[in-house]
Amino acid sequence: MYAPVLITVYDRVEHLRQCIDSLLRCPEAPHTIVYIASDAPYRKEDEKAIQKVRDYVKTIKGFEELVLFAREKNLGLQDNYKQAREYVFERHPALITMEDDVVVGQGFMRFINDGLEKYFDDNKVLAICGYIMPGGDGLEEKPFFLNEQTPYGTGIWKHKESLTDSFLSPLLADEFLRNWSLFHSLEHQTPANIRALPVIAKGDLIANDIQALLGMNRFNLFALFPPKTLTKSVGHDGTGMHSGVNHELQNQRVYDGFFTIPDNLEVKLSRKVNEGIVRSQKSFLVTLVNRSIYMCYKFIPGFYRFFKPARKMFKAARKSFSI
Asked: How far is residue 193 CA from its own chain's centroid?
């Protein structure tokens, strides 16, 4: 039996169309149930776009079954996903989760399903991921492990999600911002994520992938990855909630072949890929900003009152200049 796919969507019908078209190219599609969680509008001007999404979903064919959750009131991204995940986990032991802007290669479903079956009982492996960040893409010749979980197509298990959910506590981010050893280890894993830690630590942001990264780093847990990325997001075109335009990510090449997971694969960190990702993100300025955040958060009372609006202004400016 193949794991079902859960897709969350708001108002981007063309992104969803690309996502569905790519999934239908996978040989496992006719044997796969797809759940689509369509959130209701939070503002009146989005009503027509959301209706277009729902009208399109009703035309989709080619999967074993398609189930639409058409929300009657706006839940927000996090609750829309969480309620749909709970429904699916009442009926299936595992699922593949993605957002509407993810496109996949033909080998995506096979790799994720094989990984879900192979590591079902391994408590050190929390997820099977299809996406690799550009700095680590193509560095290994066979599947590998990292102490992090990427978005853009991820296989997860029902019996391991209680542990992953525990990582969503703001206290974990706070611990990383007060413990130099933990902070330093994160700097040597994904430096680009550190800027979000104060907002997560104060409970003003839930970022599943970053918070899973913190927990997996803290307790030395892993996710499995293919040698080359089997997915990417086409939402780096200025339409995403948290991103502006990023041409490198938007144009990242998705591998369209198939990978086999070896039986004797050792569950340990791929230092080659980890170092490649760090090299792609790290610079003198990034290090300076990150360490300034650590020092100010830990030692300056009231720092967050200035940091939060400054971060918001910076993100708005970056998004506006990138369009």
From this structure: 13
